[in-house]
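Render this sequence as a predicted structure.
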Amino acid sequence: MKRFKSIKIASIFGILGNLFLLIIKAIIGFITNSQSMIADAFNSAGDIISSIMTFIGNQIASIPSDDDHNLGHGKAEYIYSMLISIAMILMGLFVFKDAFSSIFNNSKYEFSIWLVIVCIVTIITKLCLFIYTDKLSKKYNNLLIKANSKDHRNDCVITLCNLFACLLTLLNVYWFDGVVGALISIWMILTSLKIFKESYDVLMDKSISDETKKKVYEIINSHKEIKKVIHFNSTPVGYKYQISFTIYVDGNLTTFESHKIADDLEKEIGKKMDEIYLTVIHVNPIEVGKDKSV
């Protein structure tokens, strides 16, 4: 499927781009003893893990349904998104510890033009990756690539702060470097917690949003032959949802006629709503005039 192929390519680009940034950030960071650059290097290491997890999760999620997994392997996206978030939280705590220590120990580092160059290269690289992954995220509604996209965007802002901290050293202001390192770590943790929650919600079978449910009911209500709807349920299947509900139709209709109404409605919902993977409708008869509520 084109969706999985595009995300696979994006994850490979992410691995290569972040590996390049990790190497140059680590080298310059440790040479100059810049805590914000070292923190940024660890952030890139986390980004590599994120991209690898995206690649693996996407590969598993692309496997079609089989006898053991009737609804496919789509939830692999959310399992690996959760693993990414946990890894990033641990990485953020480690970075915060070092940055916090740097602030109170009044650590200093030497200004280097290479710090500026690395920051500029990072911003350009991450901006390109953000634009690319953000487009894919909106097109395919994939949480894995959405997490990567947000991370690339955050890195642009973080590195701008890093560049500012570097330039402040020319004025003998060194404390800001440790502060930026701490802020980077906090940003990593908060972003990871949000991804964790989104993944958790899907894995715990959170129902569709009220907005999506409203769209489904609008389609149902457009069919006047449907007199009542009950037992509406939804279950996430990867990045889509399976929904089921019971409709009541005129009891004087034949079995064929009543089930054709349900079949047509299932096809219409599937055609009009990309977020719906499967619609299952149960049909019950009702005596016309007794109950017309929906």
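Summary. Residues 210-286 form a domain with the Alpha-Beta Plaits fold (CATH 3.30.70.1350). The mean pLDDT is 81.
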